Give the backbone structure.
Amino acid sequence: YTPMDTRLAVIGIIVEDLSATDHINNLLHDYGTYIVGRMGVPYRQRGVSVISVILDAPNDVISALTGKLGQLGGVSAKALYAPATQGPPAESDPLPHGPGRGGTGRL
């Protein structure tokens, strides 16, 4: 796949049944070639874990992983997609102007 064929997305996962952890890790391993990064945070006061997974993958792959995660008992999963783009800017494109980027911040 090329960047033109893929989307950037974050899957948010809330794990209420911690016995599902092995199943989640197996699924994430299966889709590892598409995963850019992941972060898991145990929220002990509520007895849950929250996981965010960043993917760069085709829409059908993101949907398939989100669906498989959501079918696990005690697991909720939702995908958030970045806006579709025409690919990365060319190296010759100027940087956007604004605070902290050498511009005035004015339009």
About this structure: Residues 98-107 have pLDDT under 50 and may be disordered.
